[in-house]
């Protein structure tokens, strides 16, 4: 994700609530989900990379906090986002 700015921009455009929106919880959660998926694939190959594993766990925790925030603010937006991103909650 970090090396592909086009993919990052595509995610931002897909989940943005309005043009130029990069700070809404939906965009942040979608970006974190893509980074988590990339790190998960990396760790399947490099099983002993403990530094990346720690980074992955930090990202998962941040995404969990954002999901909790979104569920308290607007449950409908939370449900639609978790369905689109195929997240279990």
Explain what you see:
With 89 residues, the protein is mainly alpha-helical. Helix content is 75%, strand content 0%. It has helices spanning 5-15, 25-45, 50-73, 75-85.
Layout of secondary structure:
Layout: H1 5-15, H2 25-45, H3 50-73, H4 75-85
Rg on CA atoms, Å: 14 Å
Q: Residue share in helices?
A: over 70%
Low-confidence stretches: none
How far apart, in Å, are the first and last alpha carbons? 24 Å
Number of helices: 4
Q: Please outline the major beta sheet.
A: none
Label the structural class.
Answer: mainly alpha
Question: What quaternary form is this?
Answer: single chain
Number of strands: 0
The 3D shape can be described as globular
Strand content: under 5%
Short description:
The protein is an all-alpha fold and 89 residues long. Helices cover 75% and strands 0% of the residues.
Features:
single chain, 89 residues, mainly alpha, 4 helices, globular
